[in-house]
Structure formats: C-alpha cells, structure tokens
Design goal:
Elements lengths: L3 H4 L1 H4 L31 E3 L5 H14 L2 E5 L5 H15 L3 H6 L10 E4 L14 E6 L17 H27 L15 E7 L11 E4 L5 E6 L6 E5 L2 E4 L7 E5 L1 H6 L9 E3 L7 E7 L7 E2 L3 H4 L12 E2 H11 L4 H4 L7
Parallel strand pairs: 1-2
Antiparallel strand pairs: 2-10, 3-4, 4-5, 5-12, 6-11, 7-10, 7-12, 8-9, 8-11, 13-14
Helix pairs in contact: 3-6, 4-6
Bound molecules: N-oxalylglycine (OGA) and nickel (II) ion.
Amino acid sequence: MASLDELLVSSWFNVHSSVPPSYVHPPETRPGNPIPASGKTIPVVDLRGHDPAAVAENILKASEDFGFFQVINHGVSEELMKKTLKICKDFHAMPGKDKVEECWRDPSGRCKLHTGSENYSRDAIQYWKDTLTLPCPPSGEYVQYWPHKPPDYREVVWKYAQELRKLEQKILELLGEALGLSTGYLCGKLSENPTLLVHHYPPCPEPSLTLGLAKHRDPNLITILLQEQDVNGLQVLKDGEWIQVEPLPNGFVVNIGLLLQMISNGRLVGAEHRVVTNSTTARTSVAYFVYPSNESVIEPAEVFTKGGTSATPTYRSMTFSEFRRNFFYKGSNIEPELAHSNIKS
Ligand code: OGA
Ligand code: NI
C-alpha cells in the first residue's frame, strides 16, 4: 500500500494525461461533457441591513427556498479572507512528505490530512481532492496540533476561525429567531465544536469523468465556505438542475446541513451539492463546519412539533455521537436511519 504522501492527488495529478481508472465515476454520477450548469444563481443576503428582523427573514427565505445562499457585508475583513486562502494554498503546495509530517501531532487523530473522501480505503471510486481537517472549538485547544509550516499558518488560520465563529453565531441567532426558536437555542452546545476543512482540488485532465466531491448534504448545522474568486467548482442541485455557485467578491457561501434539517423537523432542508474539477486551475476552498458537542441531543425543536399542522416529529432524537456513527457507516444513505419511524423498541 502506498504511503499517504504518495496517495495525495496533489502529489501525482501532473504526471497523468488521463484520469486513472479508480477515479472514473459511473455515467450516472459523473458530470459529463459539457459539465451542466444552469444560468440560475443562489440568493445573496446582505448582512448589514438596518433592520435585523428583515435580515433574519431574508436568511430564512433563502434557507427555505434553496438551502444555499451567499452573504455579503458580513464583517470579516477582506484582508483576512485573502491571507487565509493564500496560506491554505501554500500549505497544499508543499511537498507531500512535508504536509504529512505537519499533520501527525494530534493524539486524538481529529486534526488530520487525508485524500479523497473520509472513507478513502472503503470507497470503490476515489475523489479528486485532498483535505486538511482542523478542529477549531473556541477554547483553541487544537491549535497546537495544526501545521507549524508554513510559519504563519496557525496564527492566520486561528484568527480566521475566531472571526468565523462570530459570523456563525450571528447567522445562527438570526436564523433561530426567524424560525421562532428561543434566543440562543442554536448558539450553545449545538454549535460548540466547529471544524475547518481545507480542501484542495488539483487540475484534472478529464473533468467530465470524475468529481472533487460527490453529491451530498453536509452532516452539520450549517457550513460557511470561503472559495477563490476566479475558479468555479461548487454546484447545487435545485429542482433537478445543477446550479453553479459563482464566487462573489468577498462573499461567503452558506448552506444548511442535515442537523438543522432534523432540528427544524424538515422545515429547512440540507441542499444537495457537489464539486466538479477543471483542467487548468487548482482550486482551494475553506469550509467552516458548525458541529455540536458529542453529547448534544439532536431532535426536532418543540416549536416544530407541538400543535400546528405538522405536529408529528419526522426525525427521531439521537446524540451527535450517534449521528456521527450512523453517518460514518451510511454516508449519504443516512436519512432512513434518522426517521422517527425508525425508532427501535
Ligand atoms: C464540503 C463541501 C465545497 C467546496 O466540504 O462539504 O461541500 O467547494 N465543500 O469545497
Ligand atoms: Ni458539502
């Protein structure tokens, strides 16, 4: 078995003129040629509105209609966004051996580098991507295990994680309020364990045959994604059509995950999305995943199940640990496991 530094896509993508067979997806799931992209766009929400209730309503509407939107005027400095992307690109540009060496420090193994999906060794078909996972709870306890190279890496990325924490809390508070949840409902234990996923998608000789990430819903409350200005790749499935998410200057992409789908009893739905590759330009993205603490109970909130029209819970209650376990084994086929009708007696 090859070692991780040899397996990383960034270590070998440029020695092939075609996609290796283990990366060729079946005709039903590969992007095809031309890669489909409808001319539609996802909504944009300006967070600087003078009336917080109106901003909250805009977030809710975008979440209900698409489960995906971009935010502008979000308070994170343009300079910090640029510096973060640059240093994350610099990390992935280092030799494979150096990258692997920078990712062994965490005794819990949560801070890690991998290639393809989280289940590389079990996947029959691989994905055109490498990912660095950086847990970033507000305590900062994991920062010591993050890469020490490039030299400013930890300083820049930790500053970024702290700014993203503020933005995450603001979005969750507004969204919670618009949904009728009590103040702070989503802002405590349910969002205690954020993690950064620093993805890198090298150029690919045959983008029509492979994928950077398969169609999926995120296993979290929300994701806040920073992407490069001039490279497309992220696509959202809406009414059977793939919509390209064009990067907006200084914008973040926000999407609803499966956990908010459960908490809102299906009022919000985690939108399906995927990442396609291109033949000329490497793409780096930084996804901030809002995760709960492991012992948090994930279940439909009372406002969605008491009285009203949809009074029955659609989802059963489970701890986040249990959800994680299910997600690990079932991947994107997890939804039947989450159903209320699946309660085992
Ligand atoms: C993810 C994801 C999109 C991207 O990390 O789940 O969908 O553009 N990332 O990298
Ligand atoms: Ni995703």
